[in-house]
């Protein structure tokens, strides 16, 4: 220690004094838009005012209008725009030119406890704490005043003197509306809104001040208060500390940091602040903000090392299990004695309605908003809020649950899933009594069906050729009867043992049971899961002619799109002249494969795509040289359902040599669609 002190000797000791005379009045002004060498000390200050609570200051400083750098015409134009041609005491520029500039302050920092102004004199350092640090910037409020003047003139020109000629207005009925009670959540949002803050700031009055220059005698007098008025150490107790107290001041305990909590919007959650709460409060706060969440995501938001068993115990108190995901309980979102922010409906009624929505999602993935509203009978705004918590709107499917079913959680925690199921049974019985319904009214009727068997295009072609040979005589008789103008259609019995419900394209208005949009659904008892249609009816020449013409026009088509085009084709035919009477999905596929010009493209299926969207067919053989380009494109898509343009271009160049940009553009326009920089086969972009 002695050798260390010798190497670094004390050169001088300086006494430090704390001056308090200006402790609550001393501000530091910064001018960030002007260099330090160009001060405003010698510039005339016309006025000054302050709002002490907001620490907001405004200074009016004169401008040198005779300077060669001042544009007189611009100054006169600005004054004319702001004040107009008339003279008034309230005019901003009384000299009819812009002869002054206003500076307005903003706070550089809200916490000035670490900043002070110091003066060194006669070997003593006198320190005065700063009340605020303000940055003075030019204010352009005069431009707002000019805009208001312009709008007033335009309104006066439009209105003219027509108001003098107008007759007395007719008496109109007035609708009286009572303001609904404001919830605590709505009040917090209103308090933190920009409009409310502006109103509060405007309520504080300005305090007008007198400015004294740097060399003014009053300024010299005030500068004396920067020195400590008493040099007695007993009165400077703040600086007389023991080493332990001084160290505590330099490094305060972490617990003291909780005194100042960050102020932020009500919908922003601070993770640092969240970690300071008990585990139960952390889970509750997260669920209230997120509304619906998988258990794995919840564990990821909590601190590492958190016990999953404890989290499970906490989450069951504030959330319910829906399709393997946790959804916050209704009474957590709508506490007792609160009301809807939209309609003023009591919390008890809101909880029952939201519980019904959650219960419906335990039965199926999608629900219809009209069906929900007809049961719970709440205002549309509240029903929409319930659905937005846990679902998202989908075209032609209503509202679909936000998250996929978490099967892994259900398998890992069967006891929790069973307990939650029992809770839902209890909630269901209460809802049935309140809303007077039965569970059977909503349970979709499904019949047990074997798992669908996927058959490749080559296998289907072989099967179709065999069936065509077996039924050639039957088809020939049927075609001759139709060409002869017979109005009676005799349906032949299928040779195969399989049965299915064909796609009805006749003019009959009846739709078979178990069909959706005219097609057999997956729940229909007559639906063939293997191929979707009857194997007995094979493609007629008219059907094959329609298929070939359609593919020569569209090149790549999904089965779903082909069915739509076929229905449009049948509907456009004159009544009584349709040759298509019973065409199934299977017959459409057979017609594609038997044409010898089209093939199925076996691209990797998308998990969210519909089964018909996964079946994609492309034009294969037209006799043109461009067929090679299409086949190479189809081969690229067998490895991925979406690719970039450069991948396609590289494959074509590898196999065919130099391919022009026009050919690549034609190929992509004929067979593909673009989305977000990627290329997809037509009809395979997920909606």
From TrEMBL:
Basic and acidic residues bias (residue ranges): 146-156
Chain positions covered by the region annotation Disordered: 146-171, 462-538
UniProt cross-references to InterPro entries, sorted A to Z: RNA_pol_III_Rpc5, RPC5_C
Signal peptide range: none
GO cellular component: RNA polymerase III complex
Biased composition annotated in UniProt, kind: Polar residues: 505-524
One of the GO BP terms on file: tRNA transcription by RNA polymerase III
Ranges of residues in domain DNA-directed RNA polymerase III subunit RPC5 C-terminal: 444-687
Pfam families given in the database record: RPC5 (PF04801), RPC5_C (PF19725)
Protein name: DNA-directed RNA polymerase III subunit RPC5 C-terminal domain-containing protein
Organism: Oreochromis aureus
């Amino acid at each position: 220690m002695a050798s260390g002190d010798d190497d670094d000797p004390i050169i001088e000791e300086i006494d430090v004094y704390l001056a308090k005379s200006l402790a609550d009045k001393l501000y530091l002004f910064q001018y960030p838009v002007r260099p330090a060498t160009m001060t405003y000390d010698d510039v005339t200050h016309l006025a000054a005012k302050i709002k002490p609570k907001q620490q907001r200051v405004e200074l009016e400083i004169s401008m040198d209008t005779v300077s060669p750098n001042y544009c007189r015409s611009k100054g006169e134009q600005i004054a004319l725009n702001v004040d107009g041609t008339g003279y008034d005491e309230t005019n901003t520029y009384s000299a009819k030119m812009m002869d002054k500039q206003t500076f307005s302050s903003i706070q550089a920092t809200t916490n000035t406890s670490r900043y002070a102004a110091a003066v060194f004199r006669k070997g003593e350092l006198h320190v005065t704490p700063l009340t605020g640090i303000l940055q003075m910037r030019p204010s352009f409020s005069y431009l707002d005043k000019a805009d208001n003047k312009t709008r007033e003139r335009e309104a006066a020109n439009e209105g003219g003197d027509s108001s003098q000629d107008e007759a007395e207005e007719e008496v109109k009925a007035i609708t009286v509306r009572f303001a609904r009670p404001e919830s605590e959540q709505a009040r917090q949002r209103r308090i933190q809104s920009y409009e409310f803050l502006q109103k509060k700031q405007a309520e504080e009055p300005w305090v007008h001040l007198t400015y004294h220059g740097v060399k003014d005698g009053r300024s010299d007098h005030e500068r004396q208060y920067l020195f400590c008025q008493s040099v007695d150490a007993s009165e400077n107790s703040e600086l007389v500390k023991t080493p332990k107290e001084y160290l505590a001041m330099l490094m305060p305990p972490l617990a003291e940091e909780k005194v100042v909590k960050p102020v932020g919007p009500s919908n922003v959650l601070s993770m640092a602040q969240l970690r300071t709460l008990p585990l139960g409060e952390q889970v509750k706060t997260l669920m209230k903000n997120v509304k619906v969440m998988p258990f794995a995501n919840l564990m990821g938001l909590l601190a590492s090392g958190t016990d999953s068993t404890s989290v499970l115990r906490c989450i069951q108190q504030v959330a319910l299990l829906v399709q393997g995901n946790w959804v916050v309980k209704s009474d957590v979102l709508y506490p007792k004695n609160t009301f809807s922010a939209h309609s003023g409906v009591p919390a008890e009624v809101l909880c029952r309605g939201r519980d019904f929505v959650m219960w419906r999602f335990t039965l199926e993935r999608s629900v219809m908003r009209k069906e929900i509203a007809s049961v719970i009978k709440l205002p549309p705004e509240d029903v929409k809020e319930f659905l937005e918590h846990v679902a998202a709107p989908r075209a032609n499917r209503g509202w679909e649950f936000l998250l996929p079913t978490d099967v892994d959680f259900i398998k890992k925690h069967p006891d929790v899933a069973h307990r939650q199921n029992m809770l839902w049974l209890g909630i269901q019985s209460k809802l049935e009594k309140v809303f007077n319904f039965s569970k059977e009214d909503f349970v979709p009727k499904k019949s047990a069906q074997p798992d669908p068997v996927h058959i490749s295009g080559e296998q289907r072609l072989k099967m179709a050729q065999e069936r065509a040979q077996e039924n050639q005589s039957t088809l020939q008789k049927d075609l001759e009867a139709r060409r002869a103008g017979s109005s009676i259609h005799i349906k032949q019995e299928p040779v195969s043992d399989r049965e299915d419900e064909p796609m009805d394209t006749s003019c009959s208005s009846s739709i078979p049971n178990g069909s959706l949009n005219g097609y057999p659904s997956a729940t229909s008892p007559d639906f063939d899961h293997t191929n979707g249609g009857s194997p007995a009816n094979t493609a007629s020449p008219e059907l094959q002619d329609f298929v070939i013409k359609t593919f020569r026009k569209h090149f790549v088509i999904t089965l779903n799109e082909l069915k739509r085009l076929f229905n449009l084709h049948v509907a456009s035919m004159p009544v009584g002249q349709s040759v298509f009477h019973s065409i199934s999905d299977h017959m459409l596929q057979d017609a594609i494969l038997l044409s010898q010009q089209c093939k199925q493209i076996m691209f990797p299926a998308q998990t969210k795509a519909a089964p018909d969207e996964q079946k994609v067919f492309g034009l294969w053989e037209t006799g043109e040289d461009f067929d090679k380009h299409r086949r190479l494109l189809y081969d690229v898509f067998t490895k991925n359902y979406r690719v970039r343009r450069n991948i396609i271009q590289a494959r074509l160049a590898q196999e065919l040599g130099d391919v022009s940009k026009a050919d690549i553009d034609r190929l992509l326009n004929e067979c593909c669609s673009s989305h977000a920089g990627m290329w997809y086969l037509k009809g395979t972009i997920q909606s």
